[in-house]
Amino acid sequence: MTQGVHSTVTGPSDLHLHSNHSDGTETPAEVVRQAQAHGIRTLALTDHDRTTGWGEAGDAAVSRGMTFLGGIEFSARHDWRSVHVLGYLFDPTDPALVAETDRIRRDRVGRAERIVRSIGRDYDLRWQDVLEHTTPDATIGRPHIADALVAAGIVGDRSEAFDGILHPRAGYYEPHYAPDPLTVVRLITRAGEWRSSPIRRPRGGIG
């Protein structure tokens, strides 16, 4: 959902970035630093079902003379298919949106625990091993399980984990709750207040 973004973006842009507040590996500030190093001038942090990284990323972007847009990658499901909806420029404190993302994240945790229990029957992997690869604000998901599998020496890297143990055909896969895409679109648009959008620019505008 990118309504209004076209008038805000200046210069090379990346509007789909993750931090360690979901399944990324770097802090929001480090994501901004690396984006600038690659020539990005405008960026959006779109963590899975989470907006807690906006403040840190926004501060880092402004201090570097960049423009920051708050965003999210919202989990959804259509029939049996997983669908991810990108949303921008909405009020992150909207009660309905917060309630739904909280519900998604809670179920993601339960789902991750079920997956780890199943894997643990065949491999030396515990829930604590997964928690060691997350941050307190993280949306826990399969990438964190993959990192734990790598650290335990069970697989070589994330790709091997997803191609093998974490692939649905391996028998450990578990679904998680997610609303349908139309519900997500309605939540984002109803939470969106363009006049008070979470856009951060350096003082004096973009040079």
Automatic annotation (TrEMBL):
Domain Polymerase/histidinol phosphatase N-terminal, first and last residues per copy: 13-78
Segments for region (Disordered): 1-27
Source taxon at top rank: Bacteria
Matches recorded under SMART domains: POLIIIAc (SM00481)
InterPro entries: PHP_dom (IPR004013), PHP_domain (IPR052018), Pol/His_phosphatase_N (IPR003141), Pol/histidinol_Pase-like (IPR016195)
Skewed-composition ranges (Polar residues): 1-11
A Pfam short name: PHP
Biased composition, class Basic and acidic residues, residue ranges: 15-24
Protein name per its UniProtKB record: Polymerase/histidinol phosphatase N-terminal domain-containing protein
